Amino acid sequence: MTNCFDDPAALIDDAETLREHVGAIPPLAKDKVLDRLDRFCRDFIALSPFLVLASCDSEGRADASPRGDAPGFVRVLDDRTLLIPDRRGNNRVDSFGNILSAPGVGLVFMVPGIPETLRVNGKARATRDVELLAPSIMQGRAPVTGLLVAVEEAFFHCGKALIRSKLWDPAAQVPRDSFPTLGRIIADQTKAVDADEADRNLEEAYRLRLY
Known about the structure:
Layout: H1 15-22, H2 27-31, H3 39-47, E1 50-56, E2 62-68, E3 75-78, E4 81-86, H4 94-101, E5 104-111, E6 114-127, H5 130-133, E7 145-157, H6 160-165, H7 182-190, H8 195-208
């Protein structure tokens, strides 16, 4: 198979060539970008139980992290500030590590049943302010860390991707037994744990340590 980098003529490596290749930005696509959260953005965030957080380190190595909780778990502090609580996880803190050196982040909010998404871009900072995090308490546990996002851009994205993927279509769901459990995957990849034990530990974590 030919390496995708073997043909320089097929690669796009500058902004002018990219724009010529894809064409001009439609006026509405350009003009819809806000520098704050309007009422539609606020209402969408209040309905959203899930987002993807994109960040990168100072060397440009990118990361995308899923974040989810009850609808409205991301708090709108004002029309230019969001607070994302950090729930219990594996302590990798990849996103937090990235923003310490490169604070730019991108968020994609999703609402089950709605094909459109909300994109928010801005600068993030980590916070451990107890009073600020207290309203994000769940099951008696307050997050010990949160991500403050200063909004620079906010705009709605059309639903073509979610429509094509049939993401919200129940008939498109994959049967759980058609793919290995995470415990078995980790056991095979690391050779450091028994697969059944890993499955039991994961099931317990899902049941008892979500918060």
